[in-house]
Every structure is written in C-alpha cells, then in structure tokens.
C-alpha cells in the first residue's frame, strides 16, 4: 500500500495527513498490509521522502499492535557499525518515559563512548538512527519493537512474535515492561 497512493502527505517532512482507514479495512478483511517508505507530497517543500520507520510509528500510535518488526540488512542494532571488528549486537534496549534509551543486554562499559550510529550517505531516511528514534517512540507506548535481518529465520520468528534466547536481533521496549523472552519466559508473554 503506497503512502503516496493512499494520500499521505507531510508538512516540513512531518506527517500532516495519513488516512489509516484503508489499512484498518485491510486488516479487518484478514489481509496483511505492506507499507514502505515513499515519495509523498509535502505542503511546504512540494515533495519529500516519507520514511517507512516514520510510517510504522504513526500506525503503531493509532492501531496499538502487540509488537512491531523492523526488517533490515543486519541482525539488529550494534554498538558500532557491524562491519567493524568486535562490533557487538545489542540484544535489548530499554526506553524510559522521556524517550531516553539504555542498553540492557549486553552490559557494556563506557556505553557513551562505545555506541556509534552511522548513516550511509545514500540513505535519505536516516538509517538505523531513525529506526532507533522511531522505535523509542513506539516502545514508550508499551509496544515491543523487534529489529532483525530480513530473509532469515530470525525475521520469520520476529514476525510471529516468537522471541526466545536463540533469536538474534534487537528488542527495543519500555523500561516499565519486563522482557520475558530473555529471562526464560515464553514468546507469548511479550
């Protein structure tokens, strides 16, 4: 479902209009709507790119799903670019009421010096940085966000909400919400 064709628009790159009724109707009919980043009309710039990460945050705020999945080209959020030697996959990030986030698993020393997020020059939507910022807004709603690599067994499990100790990816959650999957609970408790 193209945001442009659905009439979504922005004002200064912020969502100005987003009719979620078509998406709600598709869900009610038993379909799984697939949305993506797209060029949309912008009331001040003429046109802009609306990131899929911003779209899913907006939908999460209106539809309040049990969880949200971001599929990427890497297994999740790392403490530095994943191509760097010794890059560590951050398994769990907690977000407090103010939107500040902290790494829960693994415990890292000197986190402020070790976590470095980069954005590829060709990525007009903000890359992993935008994903983390939008995921933090979603997590504040009490909705877990799973970030993992597309096309893997891990992505299939995330889409089903089957998060266990063997799952590889990053969970971003509210600091108020305990994550049972990494402490021996079942994925259905998420």
From TrEMBL:
Keyword RNA-binding in annotation: no
Keyword tags: ATP-binding, Kinase, Nucleotide-binding, Transferase
Domain Aspartate/glutamate/uridylate kinase: 19-148
Gene3D superfamilies in the record: Acetylglutamate kinase-like
Keyword Nucleus belongs to the record: no
Signal peptide: none
Top-level division of the source organism's lineage: Eukaryota
Protein name per UniProt: Aspartate/glutamate/uridylate kinase domain-containing protein
Organism annotation: Platanthera guangdongensis
């Amino acid at each position: 479902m193209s945001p442009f064709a659905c009439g979504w628009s922005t004002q200064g790159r912020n969502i100005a209009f987003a009719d979620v009724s078509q998406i709600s109707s598709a869900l009610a009919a038993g379909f799984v709507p697939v949305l993506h980043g797209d060029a949309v009309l912008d009331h001040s710039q003429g046109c802009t790119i609306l990131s899929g990460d911003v779209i899913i945050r907006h939908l999460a705020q209106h539809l309040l799903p049990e969880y949200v999945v971001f599929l990427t080209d890497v297994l999740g959020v790392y403490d530095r670019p994943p191509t760097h030697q010794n890059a560590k996959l951050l398994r769990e990030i907690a977000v407090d009421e103010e939107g500040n986030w902290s790494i829960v698993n693994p415990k890292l020393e000197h986190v402020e010096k070790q976590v470095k997020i980069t954005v590829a020059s060709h990525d007009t939507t903000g890359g992993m940085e935008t994903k983390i910022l939008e995921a933090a807004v979603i997590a504040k709603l009490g909705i877990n966000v799973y970030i993992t690599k597309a096309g893997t067994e891990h992505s299939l499990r995330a889409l089903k909400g089957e998060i266990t100790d063997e799952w590889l990816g990053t969970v971003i959650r509210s600091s108020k919400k305990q994550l049972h999957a990494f402490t021996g609970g079942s994925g259905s408790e998420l």
